[in-house]
Amino acid sequence: MSDLKNRLHEELAIKNACQVEGINADPAIFEGAGLGDKYQEQIQTLFDYNLHNHTGVVLPVCFYTPGGLRVGYRWNDRSPYKLRREGNQFILYHERKELFPVTLKKRPKYYSLKTSDGANMNQVATHNGEGAIFVSYSNECFLKETGHDCKYCNINYTHDTYGEEHGVSWKYPRQIGETAAVAYQEGAKHITISGGFIPERREIDYYFDVAEAIQEHTGLQDFNGTAVIGAPLDLGILERYKDAGYRTIAMNLEIWDKHIFNSVCPGKVIHCGGWEHWVKALERAAVVFGHGRVRSNFVGGMETKKSTLEGVKYLASQGVIAYAGSWIPNLGSEYEGHRSPLPEWHLDVAYKIVDIFRSAGFTYEQLYDSSASADGIWNDIYKIEEERLPVFKGEPSAV
Known about the structure:
single chain, alpha/beta, TIM Barrel, 2 domains, 5-stranded antiparallel beta sheet, 12 strands, 38% helix, globular
């Protein structure tokens, strides 16, 4: 068993590197491979993590390693990690060295269905694997109008570049409820609702309407939903989100160093009370929702490793699960063309974060419930060490 775990940790290091560096592949290799039919295609939701414009180009959402680790596909033709098609098989290489064959993710059945008003369900809620679905209800971020966008963010660029034909459009509560109902019938068990920055009062009303629609169409009072919101100025509002039916809540602080935060996230300073208030909101949310039922996110690589880990450790001590996803200098953001730290930097952070999580008593189930997807590096470390992957039972990966 230790040999298997060692191999999976090696695959995890490759996965991490692919997430940081991206994947180098000619999009033509996917022609005739069944993307958008047999295998799941990318749908634009919130941000675009590819490093090239792909209007009119169909790309896979992810692929799986032989051990069953899910690797998100981020196109970068300068990456040393290359995907090649050999017959009907896709093979991952590092430079000229063959690493292993990979498997594309099967397309969910609901991706071919429409809501009662004619919206494509695959553009209402994307499937992030292991029963996690994600709704980007809008790429409307009013920070653009004030010139206070977060500097690493390309949410408005994604909206302007890809538009409604790629699924970047407003999602109505009924559409979400109908799509969630079908997805849950197919095995989904967690839904995240997220979107761009909108005025606080409008945000509250919308999230409540969405919760009500999901409950109505799924028949579930507890639908295991995560509401991703801006830190409310009135902290008493947090209890109303729980009363509405959300099991978990997320407020992404992004940066622990308050001076960098003030510079990089000016809109969150102006409209959400600043760094101190954001931390207070997370602390209060943990009281309302409970230990391990609140999530925050850091942009891994935007500040020093020491600072990020200090933030993760402090928030964990308050019952808040804080991740540090690898920073991708997105197209259209003010940091386009910059460089994220090396893959080894990000992998070391991930293992150290898991040590903090374990010390805080966070379970895998809590990580799953608070995440938009179950494929974070920290999730994978839990799955390897706790033998949760299908490969441990001799079963094929659930792709």
